[in-house]
Amino acid sequence: MAPYDQAPSERHSFLYGANGTFIAELYARYQQDPNAVSPDWQGFFAELGDEGRQVLAELQGASWAKTGAKVIGAADPDAPPPAKPGKGDKAAAPAPAAAPAAGITPEQVRQAQLDSIRALMLIRAHRVRGHLLAKLDPLGLEKRADHPELDYRSYGFTDADLDRPIFINNVLGMETATLRQIVDAVRRTYCGHIGVEFMHIQDPEQKAWIQERIEGIRNQTDFTTNGKKAILQRLSAAEGFEKFLQLKYTGTKRFGLEGGEVLVPAIEQVMKRGGQLGMKEIVLGMAHRGRLNVLANVMGKPFQAIFSEFQGNAAHPEDVQGSGDVKYHLGTSSDRDFDGNVIHLSLSPNPSHLEAVNPIVCGRVRAKQCQVGGQIPPTEESRAQVLGVLLHGDAAFAGQGLVPETLLLSELKGYRTGGIIHFIINNQIGFTTAPQYGRSGPYPTEVAKSIQAPIFHVNGDDPEAVIHVSRIAIEFRQKFLKDVVVDIVCYRRQGHNETEEPGFTQPLMYRAIKNQPTTRELYARQLVAEGVLSQEEADGIAKEFQAQLEADFQAATSFKPNKADWLEGKWQGLTTAGNDDRRGQTAVGSDVLKEVGLAISKVPDGVAVNSKIVRQLKAKQEAVETGEGIDWATGEALAFGTLLVEGTPVRLSGQDVGRGTFSQRHCVLVDQETEEKYVPLNHIRPGRQAVFEVHDSPLSEAGVLGFEYGFSLAEPHALVLWEAQFGDFVNGAQVIIDQFISSAESKWLRMSGLVMLLPHGFEGQGPEHSSCRIERFLQLSAEDNWQVCNITTPANYFHALRRQVRRDFRKPLIIATPKSLLRHKQAVSPLAMFAEGQTFHRVLPDEGVEVAGEKVRRVVLCTGKVYYDLYAERKARNVNDIAIVRLEQLYPFPAKTLAAELAKYPNADVVWCQEEPENQGYWFFTDRRIEKVLADIGHKAGRPKYAGRPESAAPATGLLKRHNQEQAKLLDDALSA
């Protein structure tokens, strides 16, 4: 039969048949020149699957010889194939088979060769797919069908071959083994309580390391008697804590860990082994399930404090203001000592939006790595010292988009953290949704393969297996500085929360759970059977812990927090915001401004700069030298550069930020010949300044914004900025804004000085490129939670940026940055406005009214780019009795400054003018606040009038003609009587 007439399965049988060596020779010819073999063989080789090609490569690379009953030179099926001949080289002829030893027939040699090849293919199949037969489900509900590629019969073996010795060349640690021994070894290694996925990894060293760790003599973690007792003690603490809460606070939501208690000793293994490998700090992030248990039994939060919170008491001292949050969202920090290695732990607070904390933890880790090593970017050594650990739910890991967005950052310059360890608490259910309805793949972990992370699936009712893979995970991470996933397959003993009846929707699962002994019970039985301890000793461990909980429960009634930890460590010396003007020292000496300005406008020697950029740099240089015409991008660069020479690092991240979306920034110069990058801001005072980081981010808003927010939480002494490509795109990161940036100080006592730059302005570019949805930020403004600005001058922008790190407190800053104003001839500032005696102005007075204040008939209040349209229209109409006043900061609302400005015009009516539709933008926020200011000063205007676009569902029209008509009308409404 010709090979092209065979079905794929038959081709594999044919390939592994007696013609194997002959086929290898043909394949070598085909690789060199496909036309060197007949068309039927061309088709055969072209349609081979990956495994078939792998076998042929191994056949080509093997040198076969017969000695007694074994074949010498069998290749490991995962060894790299021999190098292909170079261009012009002749293909090396396959090595001839050695002459058979006396008394051994060629047919016996051939059979021995085939046995080895088939056995190696069977071993490789288990490395790839053995996890599909692993016994992972503690409840035994998952029915796993045999996989044909894991059946020795699929490789031409029969039951009669089970006890025939086969040479496998020390694969699996055995030189020669029977088929029965081979099957037993691969099933024990890959199909027991641990299932490993690692063959998708392309790096040979990483793959070989895991293979050796799993298959070799290092495949076992030696548990001493004391070690086993310690595991039982930690399981008893995890279980006992949940039972105690269930008893004392029956029916109260706590999102307990019941069914996944093994997580506690698993994390502790990462801490203990990590400390031995040089790790000094862990930043944890997790959602609610098991959070209280982690806080108590891993982080060491006092049980008294937790019981006090259950009684309704505040989690922070009474003199610290804030709304607080529910118990299972809170974070904390502590130190744990493992055999003399002190590990600092910090658990990030997290809202109910599962997985939202992921990028925030990564950003915090990156910042801490820069701090411990004192270097930007962090070194490998500093990356090894700070670890991020993320705890996920199975349904959330598979379903939430922030998971792949966070994984995407893992190997990118500017965002690397040296690998996160991901623990999945796999309850095999998402609220009431079964896995087959919650994901398309067999596991929740499929997305982790996108970054070639090794994945360990493990049965949560086998504590020693869980701790074993946790140990492997931290060892792999510390060696390769890569992400690792540990999927702990367990169950959820209660419902989604403790007030539910899960049997409504999963009756079979919860019938099994009801009859399932707890992990602690099962492990105690194991240790009693092994003679490690007696049943009385096992029971005594649990009773002792319960007694401790009871004592702490009684003491909780009088418990009071004695301090808040929010202004410690790197935050020491900072304080809460006061009620003064809060301007900060933002002005810079003229000499420093010129030094910075000339340095960033210099064309560096040896760098082939684009000619268009050369012209821009010369224009900057002229503006700095003359002290006139400083534009927006130059003002921003002066802010960055002056901070850098003062020792303050600056980090700017976002899509296309190096060039700038509107080709305005060019803080990275690209050599036109080599594409090497030159950053002028890092060459102002080489060796005597802080580092400027600028990173063109991936096309992710939520992930990258979360990362930068996390960085700002850990590093208050750097200016950290995120820029949206267009302001509208910030809506892709809304969960980070709503749940963290806007409310973290109130909920969790966590400050941030993050700056969000959001290009905004109505220039007829359509509904998705006009509005940064500023109304959303204003609606979220309360309790002095952040600052919202729409700035119109480069000098004011300069001072706004610098005051972020030149005050003794931190608040997030949202700036609706311009687009057309980036090159507007009037949107410039003299250098003197950046220098001594200058500061940020929340309100900018009129600059063109020509009559006395009492003769002004109208004051038009506005913010942002529309000011320049109003100014031009007023000039075109030759109007001299209308004043135009700009609100550069919308929140905190500048009532005092605005009152002083409006008092200048006692006889004027007041109009609020905006480009945005009436139901969007600033109107609903400013209306009553302006009214209150007018009432406070007794102004006759009473209430402001509105001039702007009518209400609209979309932010803007997509038709330029209509846009121009709307723009003309709103200007007319603002300036007409």
Q: How would you sum up this structure, described in words?
A:
This protein is of the alpha/beta class. It has 4 domains: 190 residues, no CATH class; 252 residues, Rossmann fold; 245 residues, Rossmann fold, CATH 3.40.50; 133 residues, Multifunctional 2-oxoglutarate metabolism enzyme, C-terminal domain (Rossmann fold), CATH 3.40.50.11610. 38% of the residues lie in helices and 12% in strands. It is built from 32 helices and 26 strands. It has an 8-stranded mixed beta sheet. The protein is globular. The N terminus is likely disordered.
Keywords:
single chain, 977 residues, alpha/beta, Rossmann fold, 4 domains, 8-stranded mixed β-sheet, 7-stranded mixed β-sheet, globular
In summary, what is this structure?
The protein has 977 residues and is of the alpha/beta class. It has 32 helices and 26 strands. It folds into four domains: 190 residues, no CATH class; 252 residues, Rossmann fold, CATH 3.40.50; 245 residues, Rossmann fold (3-Layer(aba) Sandwich), CATH 3.40.50; 133 residues, Rossmann fold (3-Layer(aba) Sandwich), CATH 3.40.50.11610.
Q: Name the shape in a single word.
A: globular
Number of alpha- plus pi-helical segments? 32
Structural category: alpha/beta
CATH superfamily of the largest domain: Thiamin diphosphate (ThDP)-binding fold, Pyr/PP domains
Fold-level CATH name of the largest domain: Rossmann fold
Question: Order of strands across the biggest sheet?
Answer: 5-11-12-10-9-6-8-7
Beta-strand fraction estimate = 5-15%
- Average pLDDT metric: 88
The CATH class of the largest domain is Alpha Beta
Beta strand count: 26
**Do you know the CATH architecture of the largest domain?**
3-Layer(aba) Sandwich
Enzyme class: oxidoreductase
EC number: 1.2.4.2
GO molecular function, one term: oxoglutarate dehydrogenase (succinyl-transferring) activity
Protein name: 2-oxoglutarate dehydrogenase E1 component
